[in-house]
Design goal:
Number of domains: 1
CATH superfamily: Winged helix-like DNA-binding domain superfamily/Winged helix DNA-binding domain
Mean pLDDT: 89
Largest sheet: 3 strands, antiparallel
Distance between the termini: 25 Å
CATH architecture: Orthogonal Bundle
Strand content: 15-25%
Number of strands: 5
Structural class: alpha+beta
Helix content: 40-55%
Strand order of the largest sheet: 3-5-4
Order of helices and strands: EEHEHHEEH
Length: 80
């Protein structure tokens, strides 16, 4: 897939979709099933979420997931 002047892998697409859903839900955490339901058209949601959690972008507590504090802060500071 070619987006914004560069090639974007399916993994990038899935991770961006998961991150967008988690940021939209913030400050609430979503259940894993709810996240997958919201992103039913996105491939490999759980795999994308695992990468985001491993990288410290998302947080997982049991079956609930959300964005990390650092991610929220970066989203606030990002230029419009």
């Amino acid at each position: 897939m070619f987006v914004y002047g560069r090639w974007m892998t399916d993994h990038d697409h899935s991770q961006r979709a998961v991150l967008s859903a988690l940021l939209a839900a913030h400050p609430r955490m979503l259940g894993l099933d709810d996240l997958e339901l919201r992103l039913s058209d996105v491939p490999r949601v759980r795999e994308a979420l695992r990468v985001l959690v491993d990288d410290g972008i998302a947080t997982r507590l049991g079956d609930r997931v959300g964005v990390s504090r650092a991610t929220v802060r970066l989203a606030v500071l990002r230029p419009a």
